[in-house]
Amino acid sequence: MSEFWLISAPGDEENLQALQRMNTVTSKSNLSYNTKFTIPDFKVGTLDSLVGLSDELGKVDIFAESLIKRMAQSVVEVMEDAKGKVQENLLANGEDLTSFVTHFEWDMAKYPAKQPLVSIADTLAKQLAQIETDLKSRTAAYNALKTNLENLEKKSTGNLFTRTLSDIVSKEDFVLDSEYLITLLVIVPKPSYVQWQKTYESLSDMVVPRSTKLIAEDNECGLFTVTLFRKVIDDFKTKAKENKFTVREFYYDEKEIKREREEMTRLLSDRKQQYGPLLRWLKVNFSEAFIAWIHVKALRVFVESVLRYGLPVNFQAVLLQPQKKSSTKRLREVLNSVFRHLDEVAAASILDASVEIPGLQLSNQDYFPYVYFHIDLGLLD
User: Fold this and answer.
1) Residue closest to 32 by CA, chosen among 3, 70, 12
2) From CA 133, how far away is CA 131, in angstroms rounded?
3) What does the pLDDT average to over 262-269?
4) pTM of the full predicted structure?
5) What angle in degrees, to the nearest 10, is found between the helix axes of 328-338 and 13-28?
6) With contact defined as beta carbons under 8 Å apart, do 318 and 19 qualify?
7) Nearest CA-CA partner of 298 in 2, 1, 4
8) Residue 290: how many other CB atoms lie within 10 Å
9) How far apart, in whole angstroms, are the C-alpha atoms of residue 132 and residue 68?
10) 20 to 30 A Cα–Cα from 311, which one of 85, 112, 148, 187?
11) How much of the chain, in percent, has pLDDT values that exceed 70?
12) At 309, which helix (H) or strand (E)?
């Protein structure tokens, strides 16, 4: 499974024994794979400051998770032609995400544990905010380029009524630079080809005989040229419409056709040039954001453990990886049973949802007798 439960319990002998019982039960029942989660000894400060920091870290946690999910999605979008290789680009410090989480070590160089907790939290928040700012600007530029390219490519697809004709026609298909004559393009349904050949010369006066030529087809229609005198254009269009032939509004402009082709070439070149640097940036900064996120989780465990269990600081954090989705309910029951002594009232409410305790409103989803945080690695779900 791609989720982890990060919990903590007091570090006294009774609770260390409880942790051991939890490890034994969950291991024998194959409920979860458990590892010790090491957190440094931070400078606690005042309990009042921890209360404020608890709220702030909660917001940073949510923001960080949202950010790395957006970055993972950006990798998917950039690697649209190689989606099977997305996961190998979503790493943390060169490791797959599960390995990084299960072997987590606090980065003392980036986030010195001797600094005040507020300073560490501020550093993490600013780092994540800067990554998001850069992500927005970089992906906006790439997506604008991609959209322009897709719009041009759409013009080259579709049926003869809507697609660009610049890549179909050639200079030789038209009478150009004539004061009197003009070549039109007419869309004719395939069942009407014979009718077109029989009638196009008589649809109006001054149509040049034997001037029609089929130059392109799609599944339903064909594109024909026809040459006539300029002064009968309107009359010819009217008669063509009456016979269910459609005149495409197209006039051959060599400069415009050249401009369209050069624009497509330029956009393809620009996308190729931006692809590599953007993907490298996403890989590096996804790693940085993910690492920062797990550090935020570690900070939250420390702060909540001190607030829950008091001073002096003495708790043990454990990382659990549930083995099956179907067994998470049983795993929760085991944890609540093992640690119910930490909060008998809350544990009773959780273990027996049918018991209503006046004045106490608890949800199995938001309160446990122990410190608990969830880590979801299903970034592409």
Assistant:
1) 3
2) 5
3) 80
4) 0.77
5) 160
6) yes
7) 4
8) 25
9) 9
10) 112
11) 93
12) helix 254-309
Question: What are the residues facing 229 on neighbouring strands?
Answer: 181
Tokens 């794979």 locate to: 33
The answer to whether residues 8 and 370 touch, using CB atoms and an 8 Å cutoff, is yes
Sign of CA dihedral 127, 107, 306, 304: positive
Exposure string over 247-283, b if 16+ CB within 10 A, otherwise e: beebebeeeebeebeeebeebeebbeebeeebbebbb
Contact 43, 116 (CB under 8 A): yes
Nearest partner of 203 among 161, 163, 169, 234, judged by Cα: 234
pLDDT in tens, 275-318: 888 999 999 999 999 999 999 999 999 999 999 999 899 999 99
Q: Are 331 and 26 in contact (CB under 8 A)?
A: yes
CA distance 45 to 324: 40
Closest Cα to residue 166, out of 156, 175, 181, 158? 156
The Cα–Cα gap between 59 and 318 comes to: 23
Query: 338 with 21: CB under 8 angstroms?
Result: yes
- Amino acid at the residue 282: L
d(CA 308, CA 328): 24
Backbone angles phi, psi at 79, to 5 degrees: -95, 40
Identify the bridge partners of residue 186 per DSSP, sorted by sequence position: 224, 247
Residues counted in the chain? 381
Could you give the CA distance from residue 201 to residue 192 in angstroms, rounded to a whole number?
A: 15
Nearest to 175 by CA among 206, 197, 204, 208: 208
Q: What is the mean pLDDT of residues 174-192?
A: 95
Tell me how far CA of residue 187 lies from CA of 89, 244, 329, in angstroms: 49, 9, 65
Burial 7-45 (b: 16+ CB within 10 A, else e): bbbbbeeebeebbeebbebbeeeebbebeebebeebebe
- Sort 105 into a burial class: Cβ within 10 Å, 0-12 / 13-18 / 19+: exposed
What does the alpha-carbon distance between residue 129 and residue 133 come to, in Å, rounded to a whole number? 6
Residues 33, 323 contacting (CB under 8 angstroms):
yes
